[in-house]
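User: I'm curious what two different proteins look like when written out as structure tokens. Can you demonstrate?

Assistant: Sure. I'll show them one after the other, since each token string lines up with its own sequence. Here's the first protein:
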Amino acid sequence: MTRNPIDIAVRVSPRLSALLESRVNEPDVADPPTLASVRAYLASLLPRAFREAEHMHRFDISESLLDELNALIDEFGKEALAIDFVKSAGSEPLSRVIEAVVNDENRESPPTLGAVREAIMAGIGARLVGDGVLEEDEDDGLLAEIEGLIEHLGEDTLAETLLRYE
């Protein structure tokens, strides 16, 4: 099964992205979830009367998660990996690190995830803790988080696209 080369997650609603992410992160799922397996899971949660009506197309539920999922299946196929449709964002501590790297006056080009990883490995987390930008325990998981994002998105992904503040 091949991964989709474009960031299709930007076309997914936050609600569907959260559902897909919950299925991707489900520890009891043996195989990587596909759009079809997530659709089956979602359909199993719906009341029987709704499933029967939806199946018979008696009414339009165009804003539903099921319809959004059906549209993705129509476009990308039912075997497309669910993880490709999960919107990625860094945690708030990682967002602060990314912002620090972006605002580095010595940087000539926008930083990638690979550049942020290099900055973390060079000790930017400890510097930001010292500056009061991060709490002492917030820099503990930065390297693992950036590695996960790199694995999912690639090290050449622009880091700014993952900024998130809660």
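Here's a second, unrelated protein for contrast:
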Amino acid sequence: MTGDIEIRADQRMEDLLALLPGARRTLFASYHVGGCQSCAYRDDETLTEVCDRNDIPVEEAIAALLASHERDQALLIQPSGLQKRLENGEAILLLDIRSREEHDAVRLPGSKFLSQELQNDLFARPPEQPIVLYDHRGRDVLDRCAWFHGHGLKNALALAGGIDAWSQDVDPGVQRYRLELD
């Protein structure tokens, strides 16, 4: 799965994070890099600079990033794949991890806003229930999906490209929008 992804040692962190949405999580989990102010990196730093400063062999970091990316790909469901499963009558819990305001303005039909209360209630449900999490553009949903997996909800998937991809690929009736923070 990672054959089409190329990570270069001279790649800027900003570009690396755009290419691999789970890179921040991987670097922190594997090397405690990027999770707090003392181990932070700048967007304009290269992977080599970050690795050198933290005594990490750059080849090892690239291998960890590629392996993590491959695992992340297994957590994704494409909008067309979700559509087929829903059309086949599969009972999938759709969870919106965006802000309450975004959810109230536009959402996938039948989805629920993931409040803290609902999140706590999920642990009382059968862990086999399929769950699909979505955000705006698929940038943050992998981290939340990995968190769900780590807490035993192994049938959680992340909607690739978020609600924006759903609107473009499946249902243009779901209004697209742009956040000023994007």
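A detail about the second structure: The domain at 76-169 is CATH 3.40.250.10 (Oxidized Rhodanese; domain 1).
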